[in-house]
Design goal:
Blueprint (H helix, E strand, L loop, with lengths): L1 H13 L17 H14 L12 H20 L4 H11 L3 H8 L6 H12 L1
Helix pairs in contact: 1-3, 2-3, 3-6, 4-5
Amino acid sequence: MSEGWATFLEGRFESDGREFAPNGVFGNWDTPIGARIRQCYPTRFTGRFPVDTDFVDVETSNCAYAIAATVYSYATTIGINFYALAETAERNDQTLPQAARTLGGPELDETGWAAFVAEHWG
């Protein structure tokens, strides 16, 4: 998920740090990451977090990076500090949902995340 972290930060940079991959930043156009999410989510990741094997295959890795970034974006909306989430996951070799539990905050679940992705990029 470290590439998802990098993509999340890139997506925030595209909007001057205000939010991740907002729609319509460039007139009627998505940000490049937003466009990738719209393309990849319904065809490969509907309703499920990316898993390690998604990051191995060249065919799916760019999609996996973008979709993993949405998990960080969702985490911020439910009150999880994305820096702490990334650090905890890396330090403890945990998935993001496991790291969220370690932090003792809100549950980072696929159902809430899937609804978030559908609302923002669906």
